[in-house]
Amino acid sequence: MSDLERYSVIETGFRREFILLQGTGCRWRKCTFCDYYLDTSPDPYAVNAPVLEEVTGRYGVLDVINSGSAMEFDDRTIALIAETVRKRNIEDLWFETHWMYRSELEAFSAHFPCRVHYRIGVESFNPDLRIRWKKGIGRDVTPEMIRKYFEGVCLLAGMEGQTEEDIMESVEIAERLFDYYSVNLFCPNSSAEKRNEELCRIFAAELAPIIRRSSKAEVLIENTDLGVG
Ligand code: SF4
Known about the structure:
Helices cover 31% and strands 20% of the residues. It is an alpha/beta fold and 229 residues long. It has one domain: Aldolase class I (TIM Barrel), CATH 3.20.20.70. It starts with 6 loop residues before the first strand and ends in a 9-residue tail after the last strand. Iron/sulfur cluster binds next to loops.
């Protein structure tokens, strides 16, 4: 995927530079709603180097996502992120990773000369939904266990089989336990999952304005709402 926007600056709320880099491909690839793990190429570094060149360090915070987990970056990209942190005086670096990498976070953080924070696509704190969506985060995994490793979570809204109560229960847990959370309205894609259109309408009209009152929350109605993708 070469036509994606890969650099943006978030000027409201949690101010930061936000970049979408290429990894070497998601190793999980099972989430039922996902088709973006296709964003990889034979030479991700060639895609990533010009994007990292755009980073200015203006807010001292760099948020790096890829279509998969940060542990799936190639070594040259990891080294260039570390160099960019040094060169641009980045103090806080955010990554996303899958639950299966939880025991590797500390070792991965050691690559970077700054504070490193992790976010996880938990999608829901309702284990039945997570299992149905094949997230790979087991029934016995509690929000408190997730919080031991991750400071932020991404939640999903608007799916078939989900209810308004499910969404708000997960939002309540994210608000109580985590430093950051996003709530992403599901956008139809090439996966087999469908939107619940009525739930999406209620989400956009009624729930999103309530969630947006929190300084920890970002509500994403389109996949590109953070300026990349
Ligand atoms: S949502 Fe993330 S972890 Fe799941 S298949 Fe897609 S890229 Fe992989």
